[in-house]
Model the fold of this input.
Amino acid sequence: MTRTLIASLALVGSLALSAQQPPSSPAPQSQQPSEISTVISSGDIGAPPRFAVPDFIAMAGASARDRAADAETADAARTIARVLWDDLNFEHEFALIPRDVYKTIPPATSMTDVPLDRWRELNADGVVIGSVQKTDAGVRVEVRLFNVRSGQSAFNMEYSGSIANVRVYAHTIADDIHKTQRNLRGVARTRLTFNSDRDGERLSGTVENRGSKEIYISDYDGETQRRMTVNRDLNNTSVWSPDGRSIAYVSWRRGPPNIFLSNIYSGLAPVDLTKSVGNNWTPIFSPDGTRIAFSSNRDGNPEIYVMNKDGSNVRRLTNHPGNDITPTWSPSGTQIAFTSSRGGDAEIYIMGADGVGIQKITNGYSDRPTWSPAPFNEIAYAARTGPGNDIRIIDLATRQVRQLTFSEGTNESPAFAPNGRHIAFNSTRSGKEQIFTIARDGKDLRQLTRTGNNKQPHWSN
Done:
């Protein structure tokens, strides 16, 4: 049986890019078992294994004042199991048995009395059994993934930390199970950033009656949406740094659009990187996090520039009368794709990270390219397909193009998940602009936002 390990979770608290109090640190990666985990396969050749995730067991507390399992512990046990089911189902590596089917199976009361015979009757290949117990320091969560046919534990871990945000435990468990069972990097602990006008606030310091747009972040599934900026101005095109500790975004808070960098766990004020030298837009971090590519009209018309992440060493990469905007880096950091009107219509071009070797890769109006992570070598972008836009993906090796959305509203600003299996984008298909995710094969569309207009998502690593 795999040796139990303890992974301490420092849970994400309430974050604010311009907050006075520094927020808590993000959850670190879980420790992995030191022994090789047993991979559970399906009883049917070629089919994904069937997994069940019943409610976790609410255990009596370890301290004298928590001898009985209280309502908070019971709620945490239910929440972790529900969120874990959703997280595992998101990647479609396992066939998740619907939770309402579990009603006929007696719940386990400990890790040693799991009714595996009843789970066999449901044709389950694996069942995730967990427990939640309060401790003096917070809470301890124990998880085992049982092979229903053999009765052996294929995954055995413990997690300890605060009980403030129990969803983090589910996300961490899901990513650990995907790693050990499928050697897959899951995205349950990743987050999205986007801009929204949901607060209905008007621009401050102007005579125009215009609404402000603020930067928000959320979990990958749209839960725990939190406002990051509070300057009552226009803020957009926010992007995560590769280490997930900083967000770069464009703000009109000081007049012309400038690029600001917020180290969201430091509690310090955002740093103005471009300092009103021209108008500056669409920042994007290099894969190693040391540089930021962006568009600026500081020399006349919009061109692509690169600067260090602290705003120093600004270098111009393009030089053409057409508008060059919306850069995106290749996974290796050796190339940059961008949108340019140099051929007449806006289309996607690729060049070396030094500005050399520019070549066009699309035909017809195209904008907002986003380069997929390895092992895929693709670029997603918004293409005009009539009165609106749709999301397309071009394979850079074959130049084959496939379309993911089909004229249900207008669809724009695609952003790849860090494992390349999903894309976030904004769409008007439900009326206002909202954030959606979709699998790279065009399936599994999910709406994440519902209040106000929400645009320009970007996925953390």
Helices lie at 71-91, 116-121, 167-182. The chain is about 10% helix and 35% strand. The chain has a mean pLDDT of 90.
